[in-house]
Specification:
The protein has seven helices and five strands, in the order ααββααβαββαα. By secondary structure, it is α+β, with helices and mostly antiparallel strands. The chain has one domain: CBS-domain (Roll), CATH 3.10.580.10. Helices cover 37% and strands 17% of the residues. InterPro entries: CBS_dom, CBS_dom_sf, Diverse_CBS-Domain.
Length: 150
């Protein structure tokens, strides 16, 4: 069973919430990723900013986007995965939340990032039963019954 720790990138930069978008974009270029975590000084996750968020703001706002900070574009509640969780659980999180990037947490602190590309490149053996277990939707999201009583 492959764990997140075996596939993740451990040395991703942690951005501050107040960093300029230009700095965030440069950090993504340097780390060759399309998303980075925003963290407090202790390494606790505050949110996630993506290259897509930055590009969209730049296209929409033009030069006004230069006045924005990463916190203005971040997802304040991104899905996460634990350092010792299985790849199946990570894949389920990515599918449920429609994301390709997961901050990896060791306790409360960000210790890396896992991407769908990393999973795809490594092609770990996947336990389908475990994957299905993690993808089960809560009852409120389950399809309505086709039979009705009158």
């Amino acid at each position: 069973m492959t764990t997140v720790a075996e596939l993740m990138t451990a040395d991703v930069p942690h951005l501050s919430a107040h960093c300029a978008l230009e700095h965030a974009s440069h950090a993504m270029d340097q780390s060759k990723t399309d998303a980075l975590p925003l963290c407090d000084p202790d390494g606790r996750l505050l949110g996630m900013v993506t290259r897509h968020n930055i590009s969209r703001a730049s296209r929409s706002l033009g030069e006004l986007a230069d006045s924005l900070r990463a916190q203005h574009l971040m997802n304040p509640d991104p899905p996460t995965i634990g350092l010792h969780d299985t790849v199946e659980k990570a894949m389920a999180q990515m599918a449920i939340h429609q994301t390709r990037h997961l901050p990896v947490l060791n306790g409360q602190r960000v210790c890396g990032m896992l991407t769908s590309a990393q999973i795809g490149h490594q092609r770990p053996a996947v336990n389908v039963e475990e994957l299905v277990h993690h993808v089960k939707l809560p009852a409120e999201h389950a399809p309505a019954s086709s039979s009705s009583t009158q």
